[in-house]
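Lab notebook, page 48
Experiment: co-folding of the full assembly
Goal: obtain a model of how the components sit together before planning crosslinking
Operator: M.T.
Materials (sequences as entered):
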Amino acid sequence: MYLGRVIGTVVATRRYKDLDGYRFLVVQPVNHDLKPYGTPVVAIDAVQAGPGELVFLVTSREASQALPEPFVPVDDAIVGIVDSLDILEEMEWF
Amino acid sequence: MVLGRVIGTLVSTVKHKDYNGLKILVVQPVDEEGKPQGHSFVAVDTVQAGVGDLVLVIREGNGARQIFKKPILPIRSVIVGVVDEVYVELRLDKSTEPLSA
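Observation: model returned without errors.
Model output:
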């Protein structure tokens, strides 16, 4: 499970039938300091998130289990919208 | 399972119903010496871990389903232990290339 920032939406009219009714969002993975890393992913939206929002996602098999009808073919699912993050300011790495 | 350090807490009101009542923490993976490695991630706590704790985290869904006793559960990362100490018996030189056969 990881943090991400919603940066866009994907529209696909022709899609696998089990994916009907869901929204696809483009999400950039971010670190705890909100700095982006890696390649953006297309995630299915289980919580009605919108562009610009900080969210957390779950990957692989558990992604499809976030949906009312599990076992649909998805890789990543948005499972929560982040209200606030409280990160340790002075980190001591031993 | 990976070693990680809890570096923060996450508050979320709009979330998947299976996350209701669970404590969500931000974890930085660390190596055997406690140095940060890779990108931080989000995990659910089951052992009352706190910010600053060195923890043991599973990052795989089957274990998570067993812990919460649910056959279908959209959770992959679960904090399952607070580490008291890590003993390193052997230090391997990670900078050298593996020997070719």
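Interpretation: The interface with chain B takes residues 1-3, 29, 31-32, 37-38, 46-49, 56, 58-63, 65-66, 70, 77, 79-88, 91, 93-94 of chain A (CB under 8 Å).
Next step: discuss with group before ordering constructs.
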